[in-house]
Every structure is written in structure tokens, then in C-alpha cells.
Design brief:
- The chain is mostly helical.
- It has one domain: Ribosomal protein S20 (Methane Monooxygenase Hydroxylase, Chain G, domain 1, Up-down Bundle), CATH 1.20.58.
- 87% of the residues lie in helices and 0% in strands.
- The radius of gyration is 18 Å and the shape is elongated.
């Protein structure tokens, strides 16, 4: 347990930030999952919409510092690569 007032305050701050960050992280995960499902369905239009929504949500999480910008970039790249393959087939 924390002994100093500053450590106790830091614990409170970290808890508030964790709860705030959790919302954006879960939202990004949900949109990425929806994009993957749409990509697996093979429907190019639905996949494009879902992928762009996932990218928007990843960018927002990265801009807030919730996930690292390279992590967001890697996920976006993988989604776009999959989308490009589907659009090429169609």
C-alpha cells in the first residue's frame, strides 16, 4: 500500500485514467473485430466501410496515447492489406 500522500494521489489518478482509456481501447477493439468479420465475408463495400471506421477509431486511440502510434499503424496496415486483397478479387 502507498505510504505517501503523493503516491496515494497517483493511485487515484491512475485509476481514473485507466477507466477513461478503457472506453477508447474497447471501442477500437470492437471496430477492428467488426472490420475483420466484414473482410472475411468478402463483401467489398461493407468491408471498406468497416475498415475505415476501425482506422478512425485506432487513430483516435493513438492520438490520445491510449495505444502506441506504431501499434495503431501496424493494425491499420494489416486491415488495409486485407481490404486491398478483397477489392482486387472483386
Amino acid at each position: 500500500m502507498a505510504n505517501t500522500a503523493s503516491a496515494i494521489k497517483r493511485i487515484r489518478q491512475n485509476e481514473r485514467r485507466r477507466l477513461r482509456n478503457r472506453v477508447h481501447r474497447n471501442k477500437a477493439r470492437t471496430f477492428v473485430k467488426k472490420a475483420r468479420v466484414a473482410l472475411e465475408s468478402g463483401e467489398p463495400n461493407a468491408a471498406r466501410v468497416a475498415t475505415l471506421e476501425a482506422i478512425k477509431s485506432l487513430d483516435k486511440a493513438a492520438s490520445k496515447g491510449i495505444i502506441h502510434k506504431n501499434n495503431a499503424g501496424r493494425r491499420k496496415g494489416r486491415l488495409m492489406k486485407h481490404l486491398a486483397a478483397i477489392e482486387k478479387q472483386a
